[in-house]
Amino acid sequence: MPSAEAVRKVSRLLEMSFGRPLRPKHMDPMSGLILAILSQNTNDRNRDRAFGRLRDRFGSWEEVAAASPSEVEEAIRPAGLSQVKSERIINCLRTLKSGDGTLDSLREMSLEEAEGFLTSIPGIGLKTARCVLLFQLGLPAFPVDTHIMRVSKRLGWIPEKASARKAHNILQNCVPHELVLDLHINIIRLGRTLCRPRNPRCGQCPLLEECPTGKRERASTAHG
Question: What is the pLDDT of residue 98?
Answer without folding.
Answer: 63
